[in-house]
Amino acid sequence: MQVLKRPIITEKASEKNEAGVYGFVVDKRANKIEIKKAVESKYGVTVEGVRTAILPGKPKSRYTKTNFISGHSASFKKAYVTLVEGDVIDLYENA
After folding, report:
1. Residue 95 lies in a domain
2. Distance between CA atoms of 81 and 91, rounded to whole angstroms?
3. Is residue 19 domain-resident?
4. Cα 29 to the center of its chain, rounded Å
5. Is the pTM above the cut of 0.85?
6. Is residue 89 situated within a structural domain?
7. What is the pLDDT of residue 94?
């Protein structure tokens, strides 16, 4: 199981990065301890705290020429990781 799927790179998340809080999309089955170990081993930083949230899928629908199509987007889990003061993660190094 790959715990960390991808970092959250949005304008709102970038503002939190300055305060030492980083967001990641994580596996739904991962708990806070596993997330902490994964971030510490991948980025070589010390994690102070982890907050998680499971976001449900939203209903989506669209009209086509012949039909009405409805469904929903997938649900996912995200984690906000707070680092010890002085530690920094460079999310753009591999981009």
Report:
1. no
2. 13
3. yes
4. 14
5. yes
6. no
7. 61
Say if residues 3 and 35 touch (Cβ distance below 8 Å): yes
How far from 74 is each of 52, 59, 66, 78, CA to CA, in Å? 17, 9, 25, 13
Distance of CA 11 to the CA centre of its chain: 14
Residue 3: CB atoms within 10 A of its CB come to 19
Residues 50 and 81 sit within 8 Å (Cβ to Cβ): yes
Give the span between the Cα atoms of 31 and 26, in whole angstroms: 9
Name the residue among 47, 43, 32, 51 with its Cα closest to residue 91: 43
Q: How many domains does the chain have?
A: 1
Q: Does residue 90 belong to any structural domain of this protein?
A: no
Phi-psi region of 16 (alpha: psi -120 to 50; beta: other; left: phi over 0): alpha
CA dihedral over 32, 36, 39, 41, signed as positive or negative: negative
pLDDT along the chain (95 residues), means of 10: 94 92 97 96 95 96 93 96 93 70
